[in-house]
Amino acid sequence: MRFIDLRSDTVTLPTPKMRYAMYKAEVGDDVYGEDKTVNRLEEMAAEMMGKEAALFVTSGTQGNQIAVLTHTNRGDEIIVEENSHIFCYEVGGLGFLAGVQTRTLKGDRGCFNTTELENSIRSENIHFPKTGLICLENTHNRYGGVVIPLDDMERIYNLSRKYGIPVHLDGARIFNAATYLKCEAKDIAKYADSVMFCLSKGLCAPVGSLLVGSKEFIARARKLRKMLGGGMRQAGILAAAGIVALTEMVDRLEEDHKNARILAEGLLNISGIKIDMESVQTNMVMADIEGLGMDADTFVNKLLEKGIKVNSRDRKTIRFVTHYYVTTEDIFTTLSVINSLTR
Question: Is the full-model pTM beyond 0.90?
Fold first, then answer.
């Protein structure tokens, strides 16, 4: 049976061009800075994000954690959105690795209210930790892949300049955000001091993410990557796939967004399913199935029996994610199956 896998855009397999590029990759010891393919990927990433330098890391989580370690000191407090990936899905690394305290704010679809953000910045007081970092996420995973508009990114960045606090952007899917906003990724990245973005989410690379920032920032981050076991030696084999991802897979993301929209509109027409269409902006669809009279796990298992893989987010919410290996035909098949299950 061929499964239609809508669980995540991380389930994609490397394309034939990626596999060939990996086979032909020119490699060297990256810890010594001698892997030409890694160097080329890092240069490309820095240019695309409008930053001075970049660092190839094993994962988005590693990139985010290295960024926090680089920006902050132990005992600092960082401000994060309460449903952010860096807070919810990175195994408590902020406290365990960086030794920082988190201050969570509820965002409007992941975006901070400026007044609330400013009120959360610590004043100088012997009892208080120092506010060491502001973290943003664009697109925002738990709000269904929604995009923080450029005006809001700029507003938060300007506030951070007022208080001399760096901004880190978890831009795991920054190219999806740029596609939605019809701008370049660097137009988003310019409102952050550091940015992490993934090659293995939506872009089909098998492994890896990039952390970008100033030359000084990346020099410190490179040493911290080594501390965390991220010196991968002949990593050009992996970086080669990343180069293909950045040159060939970014411009096609609009197809995934269109398929997500078709899916959302189809689900909206099924009695018992609710969709917030305003949140369907990129390649994710969050479906409230409470009205079907079954819990999310039961729904997931029924779809699996029919050859469709999805994930539940909670007891009443299903997350669908489109990607390169999900066709428009697959979307209509999925809608047909769900219709048959809900009659």
Answer: yes
